[in-house]
Every structure is written in C-alpha cells, then in structure tokens.
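Hey L., structure's done. Input below.
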Amino acid sequence: MKAVILAGGKGTRLRPYTAAFPKPLMPIGDKPILEIIVRQLKSHGIDEIIMAVGHLAELIMTFFGDGSKFGVKIKYSREDEPLGTAGPLSLLKDELKETFLVMNGDVLSTINYSDLIKYHKENGAIATVALNRRSVYIDFGVVKIDESKTIVDYIEKPTLDYLVSMGIYVFEPEVLNYIPNKKFDFPDLVKTLMSAGKTVKGYVYDGYWLDIGRPDDYERANAEIDKIYSELFR
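Output:
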C-alpha cells in the first residue's frame, strides 16, 4: 500500500524556525517529525511513500534519499506552484491505482494506521477522514437571539465540543477524478465528494494527536515525546 505525505508547506506559524528549515524536519526528541511518521508507516506495512514537497524540498530529499536507509521506497512529487492540501494529489494519478493513505507531514499521533485502513475498507467508503475530539472553552456568556432580536437563550461560559480533522485520510483512487490541477484543499474535496453522493466516513480516534504547526504544540510535543514514544510504533 502507498502513502502520500504532504511535506511542501512553508510552516509560517513556526517562524523563525522554518525560515531556513522545512517544518517536516523539525526535531521531536531526537528525530525529525517526518522521520517518525515514515517509521510509523513502515511499522504498519506501508513501505511505498510519495512525499509531496515544495518549500526547501532539497533538504527533505537529501535527508530521506530513496528511503532505503529507513526500509521503504520514497519518491518525490514537486509542485511548481502552491496547490493547497488536496491539489498535489492531482499530480499523482498515474501512481495511485489502489487504496492509499494521505497525511500531513507534521502530525504526531499514536493512531493505529492499520485499524484506520481496515475501518475504511470495511465501510466501503470512497474516503475516510481520521477525526479527533477537541473542546473549545468560551470565556464569555453566549447569547442566542431570534429574528426579532429577542433573547432566547443565555449560556454562561460554555465549552463547545467538536470533531476535528487529524490531517490523516484514506482514499480510493476514484477520488482523484474530483481533484482539479489547481489550488484545492481537503474540505473542498470532501464537500465535492458528498455533493456527488459518495460515501465519506469519519474514523474517530480519541488517543494522542498533535499538529506541530504552532509553537505551543511544537513545544508540547517535545515535552511529551518520551511518554508516548513506545505507543508510536505497533
């Protein structure tokens, strides 16, 4: 099975670190986050990886090479102009002929990729999105009004619960028919698939997950990596 890792972003939220260093090579503990991901995928039997690169691509390509030192085969797909999160897949139609996994190159999670793929296949979906629960605390009184501006509800400092995308997906090759060769993001793709009447499933994972794109989450990942390290590889 093949996996596509999106590793072409500029990492603007992590500046100044990423001004001269690609975000996927930012170290978590003693390894770059992208190396952790590659080793995770290998532990789940995914040994063919395509890295969609852009910003500072040469550094990523030099570090990983053909993947042989990690026990995998790595190819690279380089976009000439930013294509968003889903757009880079439009360049890979000749490579992705079977069920494939796609993920961001800055995700630190103990998710079981084998279970995710199994869930996707058992449900006959064209696409499956890995989801994580997040709660947002609102430090204000939230007021609801009707069309006449009459207050109909007043909630003091509520906590709102959401399911958020983890930046990890499993797709069938058919999804590539819905991705244009231009800037196109995953929310656009999911909405397009739903409008076309296709089955899109959510895989809810309540375990550890961080997107290290923000300084506070990056620092948290480094503080917690030793605690979760043994859970990363199954």
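The chain has a mean pLDDT of 92. The helical segments are 33-43, 57-64, 113-122, 186-195, 215-232.

-- N.
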